[in-house]
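Forum > Structural Biology > Help requests

Title: Can anyone predict the 3D structure of Peptidase inhibitor family I36 protein?

Hi all, first post here. I have the sequence for Peptidase inhibitor family I36 protein but no way to get a structure on my laptop. I'd be grateful if someone could post the structure tokens.
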Amino acid sequence: MKINILRGSLVVGALALLCSVLFALPANAAYESCEKPSLCLYDGVGGTGGSLRLPLDGTATVTGSGWDNKAVSVYNNTHLWACVYANTYLGGTVETIPPGGDGDLKTLVREVTSHKLAPSQGACFTGYERCGTGQLCIFKEPNGRGGMYGTPNDHAGYLAGVWADNVRSVMNRTEKTACFFNDASWSGEWTRTGQPVAKAYKVNAGDTTSLTAPFDTSFQSHRLRTPDADPATDKECLS
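Reply #1:
Sure, ran it for you. Structure tokens for Peptidase inhibitor family I36 protein below:
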């Protein structure tokens, strides 16, 4: 039996090309209107209904006016991980969508309020990148998520109901040591079971931290000081 090798190669090549095209498309044709590179949200199942296109170069972390708590399905037509959040400023429950992923939301149906695109799935669970160079940034949720305030200055007393007793994580992008206190005017003392723990909580230049007891949600003031020669001490904070 004579086999036409050239014809067989052409057929195999054509099938391979067809498969690559099919696998490059979203699973549901309804998503095909989402331009690349974009994250697209839909207020109906399976990419139906109204849509919101979020371009790759967008800088806003808030999804968009009129779209809070509307998204039902999503198509991540980018090479990055899409991260969507229940609260503003990357706060609350997180749902992640891989590059090229599409479908109905699993945990945040009509609950998406903010978003970002990240290089990895793990990066969806942090928000420290929002802190600018030269800033000391405090956050209302662990891992740099939730509301953020950045400043290069000392603060003798945080506003009650806003930042006082509301700090849960810190990023120090200054060149100084950040010193936090549990009372206004850089005073007070932390205790555990009645015993003194610390008079100041230090975050060294370049460091990030999520706070644990007894420091979590206890900060009332902070100041920035030139680092002490011995990083194990807190002399710079108390002088």
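Residues 5-24 form the longest helix (20 residues). Residues 27-125 form a domain with the Gamma-B Crystallin; domain 1 fold (CATH 2.60.20.10).
Shout if anything looks off.
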